[in-house]
Each structure stands twice: as C-alpha cells, then as structure tokens.
Amino acid sequence: MNLLLSGRPGVVIATPQGLQYPLSAPALFKKGQKHFVVGDEIALPDLAQWLNQAGYHRENLVVKPGEFAMRGDIVDLYPLDRESPLRLEFFGDEIDTIKTFDLTSQRSLEELPEATVPAASDHVFTAEDLDRAGRELAGDLPKEAAASLEIAQEALANGQLPDDYDRYLDYLLPESFSLLDYLPAKGLLLFNDWQLIAESVKNMGAINDDYLASQIASKMMTSRQKLRLDFDAVLKADCHHRLYVSLIAHSMGRLRFGQHLAWDSREPQQFFSQMELLKTELDSYAKKGQTVVLQVSSRRQAEEFNRSCHDYDIYLPLAEADGLKEGRTQLVIGGYASGFVLPDSDLVYLTEKELFNQNKRSKKRIKTLENAQRLRSYTELKPGDYVVHVNHGIGRFEGIQTLETDGKKRDYITITYQKGDQLFVPADQLSLVQKYVASEGKQPHVNKLGGSEWAKTKKRVAARVEDIADDLIDLYAKREAEKGFAFSPDGSDQAAFEAAFPYEPTPDQLRATAEIKADMEKAKPMDRLLVGDVGFRENRGSHAGSL
Amino acid sequence: MQVIDFLKKDQAVTAFIAKTSRIKNSLLTGVERGAFAVLIQAYLAQVGQPLLLIEENEYKAQERYNDLSRLLADDDLGLLPWTVTWPRKRRSVHRTNSAAGFSA
Predict the structure, then answer these.
(1) Residue A207, class by beta-carbon neighbours within 10 Å (0-12 exposed, 13-18 middle, 19+ buried)?
(2) ipTM
(3) Which terminus of chain A, N or C, has less C-beta within 10 A?
(4) How far is B23 from chain A (nearest CA, A)?
(5) C-beta separation of B38 from B13 below 8 A
(6) Beta-carbon contacts below 8 Å between A and B
(7) pLDDT tens digits for A52-107?
(8) What is the largest CA-CA distance in chain A?
(9) pTM of the entire structure?
(10) What percent of the residues of chain A are helix, what percent strand, and what percent coil, each to the nearest 5?
C-alpha cells in the first residue's frame, strides 16, 4: 500500500480477493506512518505510544515484523515492509543513529540517515470510528447473539479493536476504499489471464456467500457484515488504464479493447544438460545472427559452465547484465527465473532452467509465509499424515474428495478428528492447513472437532513462548560476558581449500559458513547449532570450519 | 545493452506499452512466463508508473512475486499477503492489539 501511495515505478501483486478487501481512506492510512531522521527529537514515551497506536506490539526482543522493543536508549522495531528490523539509538530525546540489523546475530547491517516506518496494520481507525462501530453494532445485534459477536461489540464500545477486527470492517470503516484507491491515477492495472480471474471471483463469491449465510443464521454475524467489496462495483468505479495479458487470445466476454497486440514471445528449447545439443543450437542461433544470452546465477557457476563448454568447443565470453552485445552468444550472471525467445528482437535468453533443468531458488519469500510449514499443494500430503488446521487443530489427513453442494462440484481436503468427526476444507483454502511436524515416529494428540482444547493449547503455547524468550534473554546476556579465543580471518590456504569443492553451495550454506567463521573470529565462545541433512555440502561446511 | 533494450527493436511492443497509458483497455496476448518478467521491466522503465498486478490466486501471486523479486529492488515490489485472500479467517497481527486509534 505504501509502495502504491509513493507513486514510484514498482509492482504490487494481489489476487482478485485482494481488490475486494475493504481498506481505510488512503489519506488516513498515510497518517499512520512516521518519518525518522537522525537528529530529530522525539520523547521515548511518545514514540512507544505511537508504535502502539500504529499496531506494533511491544516485546522483549524483536523477532518478527510488527514488533518493537525498548532497552534504555535503544528502540528496535521491525516494520512490515522491510527485510531487516531497524535500531534507533537515542541520546536523550534525540535520534543519534538509525541502523538496520541482523535478527540472528543482532549485528548492525547498514546505517541510514532517515527511515519511514509505516503502520503495522493495513487499517487505520480513528477513535470516532471505534465509537461509531460500537454503537451501530449494538443496534444491529440479533437476539441471543453469539458470544464472539457480543465480545467484539463490547470491545468496540470500550474504544478497543477486537482481535478479529477485520470481521467488523463494515462497521469500522465510515467509507470503504480498495487497493485501487491507493494506485495513483496514472498507474496501470494489469490482469494476468482475465478468464481465470473472472472464474476465481465467481467461485470465491459463492463460497463467501455460503459462509455469510451460515454465520448470520448462527447469529455470529449481522446481516450488515459483507466482509468484502463487490468486485464488479470496485472495477466499475475505477478509472485506471488496464492491461489484460494472456498467453492465448480467448473469449474476453463483454470487454472491448482500444488496442490488441499478439506478441511473439516463445519458450526456449530445453537442453537438460545435453551439451552436444546445446552446441548445435548455439551454432544455429549464431548463423541467424541472433543474440544469445546464457544465464547462470554466480561467477563460480559461470567459470564451471565455461570449463564444461570448452570440452565441446563452445567459448562464451562473460558479459555484464547491462553490457550485452547484440548478435553475439554470451554468458551472463542474471536473475530471470525462466528463459524466453523474442523473435522480433532477435533475442534468445536461456536460464539454468532450460540449460540444466534447474529451477532457481527464490531470492526471498513474503514474510507472512516465512518459517511456516505451509502447504503449497495437497499433493504434498499423503493419507494418514497429521495436519494442523489453524482453527480446529491437529487431525489426520484422509485424502481429497470431490463433493457436490448446490449442484457445484468442488475438491475438499478431508481431515478426521477425535471420534471420527470429519472436517471438509475446500482445496482452495489450503493455506489454512499445515503439515504437522514432530520428531520421527511421534504420534500427536488428535484434537476434538468443535472443542475448546485447541484454542486453549494455542493460548498456553503463546504464554510459554514468552517465558522461554525471557529465559533466553537472561542466558544470552550471561554468555555475552564470557571471553573466548579469536581465530584469524581466512587466509589463502582456506580459499584454495574451499575452491577445490566441486559443488556450488546454496545461499543458506554460504550464509551458515560465513556466520560460523564470523563467530570463530570473535573473542567470545561460539554458541551455534548447525542443523541440516548431512550430505557433501554440510561436510564442506564443517571441513571449512575445522581448517 | 540490457535485456529490455532489445525490446526497443520491436517497435510494436514499444508503441503498445506507450499507448497503455492513453487507452482504457489494452490486450496483450502471446506472453510466455519468462517474457512476462521482461514485459514488466520494460513497462516500468518506459512508463515509470506503479503497476497493480492481479493474479488468479495466491499461489500464482507468490510465484510471480518470486520471479520478479530477482529482478526488482525490494522496495519496488510488494505482495498483498495471503491473509487478505480470506479475510473472514484472518486475525489481527497481534493477539493483544488494543490500539485506541489515531485521532482524525
């Protein structure tokens, strides 16, 4: 949302349901961010109050986005839009330094002259909003309303946001805005495969309607609660220019287009490490005068690939990504996930995917999915596996069933709980289910469907995690005070030893090795546990450390 | 030359991108996965405006994010979190959040 409001040329990716998500007015949202500049003055209690209001949660130690911690003149805070948390050091009320720091090592990464910190919530409400929502919800409460509804109303009446406040956006927002209201007037709205998007809107709309009907019938919601905006209405009210992109030209319904281009972009040939085939094709491209770019992900890979190529009389100059030569075949270190052929630009671009059938690792994932055993696909599960549903707890995965409701067939993930009770989770709600992870062979306790046991477990664990964090802080403070032996930094022997390893280390392995070396160079005892499935690369790490 | 500079040889694409900011609805077909990333880069470089990209579902959105995250700076790429896909199941970021709200 901040990226869109900034007007910078960038990309925000969302789903159709993201467009239907009701938001606060952009102007109000902007108020929820704060700009910190070195030398500025702000009283620490005022800062703490602002952070609380902006949705940041105070902790002893910052661990995840949306948290802040205060220790003396130091304020650590983890904005939602940053890869690394920020550390503000104060001298009295004056901001002395602003730095990013590494969560694991707590070491500073980069010193910044200024930093903008957005609210840790996608909504910003005024005190009037809460008051009005409380009153209006009270007026709409059905007789014998569900306890959750009454609790939410009570919280609002007391000027507090309920935990599940997004269920009450229809009351909280005086006027609903969508993500399109955050996109500047000259920004572009791009739909990738409109037909599938339209289908998704229809299906999700039906699911949402069913859900609303059941919630209203059980008096857990009022009839005013819609939870999301109408997709067609959002688009109808929108004036942005739109680009519809698809692989093939198929029916686009009633849409009319001011321009249509059938772009000639193609998937390149797959080589599967067949160097002779690659040689033949490279010769063929060269004869046609095409520019051919072969992409690898590191300088080391480029050297290794070039060595292999020499055996087949293929000689590839290494070019910079912004120094590609037209009409030449060249090697480049780059970041495209897949290759492409653009015949009208005489360009053939091959990545590791086409060359070696290797998929590049993602550079990063979004924060909300980090550290979770979230399932990408139900094919990752086999019947009998234990799974955890975010709301219903641990159960046994039985398989996928196609069920028909109201004449519509849909796939459901079937989970069995205590006494054989079964839960059918629509396959498109896979994000609510995680695979249960435990030590090998350990049988988990299966929860009761509809019971309060799971909610209590979650509450208990949350409290226990807080206790553990407190203990760890004490322990780390003691360890920090101890002295150890500082090893010298890497020399030429170490570099030669590591260069002799035949496999390319993964980014995680490189990071682990670098962190271990950094630990060993400190005059403090190392305190690190390296965990991994031991193969060559892990031995490499330990050998490198031993040397 | 960068990859997007090669697109300049394709006058049809360059003209098409330029017109997207003047025409209400534009349709571009024939876009393969790899070429999609080049198209996005070319749009940002040529038009210099933000772009809101809608993908069919959360999985595809995440895949697209992964593809583009290798090409665009962290600050120039965002993904609306999956929690927004299912607002009814969403809970506030913090269990004990009791923000009194900002004054208007």
Answers:
(1) middle
(2) 0.87
(3) C
(4) 6
(5) no
(6) 399
(7) 767 788 888 888 888 899 988 899 999 877 888 999 999 989 999 999 998 877 78
(8) 83
(9) 0.66
(10) 35, 20, 40
